[in-house]
Every structure is written in C-alpha cells, then in structure tokens.
Amino acid sequence: MVSADRERLPVFVYGTLRPGQRNHTAFLRGRTVAEEPARMRGAVLFEGPGYPYAVPDATGEIFGDLVFLAADQHDGVLAALDRLEGCLPGGPGRHYVRVERPVLPEGGGTARAWVYLAVDEVARRLRAVGTRIPGGRWPV
C-alpha cells in the first residue's frame, strides 16, 4: 500500500509551474498526461520575489491548474518539485510545505491533489506585511 506522502495524486499549481511559465518548461513539460484549469478554496495568494505564495485562508480561493504527472515519472518529478519549492524535511530556508487538498477542476467535480502552501513562519510574515494578490490569480 502507498503511504499518504507517496500517493500518486495530481499536483495543483498556481505560479511558475503553470503551463506557459518558466518552471513548467523546466520541470513539467513532457512529464504530464493531462493538465486542466482548476481552483482551490481555503487559500489566498501573496506576492513573492518573482513567484506567488499560497497562504491558508478559510475565505479565500486561488486559481491555477491541475497537473497529472505521467505514472512512470511521478515520484521523480514530485521529488524535483519538493526540492524546487524548498520543502524537504529539515531543509534550511524552507518556504513551502506540500499538503493534500481538495481542488475543483474546471470540468466539474472534486479532485484530491498535492499543493505547495507557504510554511507557517512565511505565512505569518506575509499576513502581517505581505502584498495580497487580488482575485487569487497569478500572474496578475
């Protein structure tokens, strides 16, 4: 049985990993089997240095894409994304944590997906002094 952390879920992307953005080309192009617009409730976006941060917020909603990784590349791509997003356990300067959340694909229904959210320390700082991205869409 696959552990919760190793489950082969799609990934909800909302920043530089979205189709057409720089990290999509570097990390996802040719490694997905499907991509579709989607939205996720329970978070808002804040500006970062060239990329956004998703911060938990019960009243918020963000827009992005649900990316289905190719089965034979899933684990390797997810590990590469974890490194990119600075969310390796015990790693210095952690920015994000990968968590499972429900996502609403544009075509209807609900899907379980991995998403990268700002770690608590970063989220607290952004709530206090960050610039919120209106409408939950990046790039603006």
TrEMBL record:
<dbReference type="InterPro" id="IPR013024">
    <property type="entry name" value="GGCT-like"/>
</dbReference>
<protein>
    <recommendedName>
        <fullName>Gamma-glutamylcyclotransferase AIG2-like domain-containing protein</fullName>
    </recommendedName>
</protein>
<dbReference type="InterPro" id="IPR009288">
    <property type="entry name" value="AIG2-like_dom"/>
</dbReference>
<dbReference type="Pfam" id="PF06094">
    <property type="entry name" value="GGACT"/>
</dbReference>
<feature type="domain" description="Gamma-glutamylcyclotransferase AIG2-like">
    <location>
        <begin position="11"/>
        <end position="138"/>
    </location>
</feature>
<dbReference type="InterPro" id="IPR036568">
    <property type="entry name" value="GGCT-like_sf"/>
</dbReference>
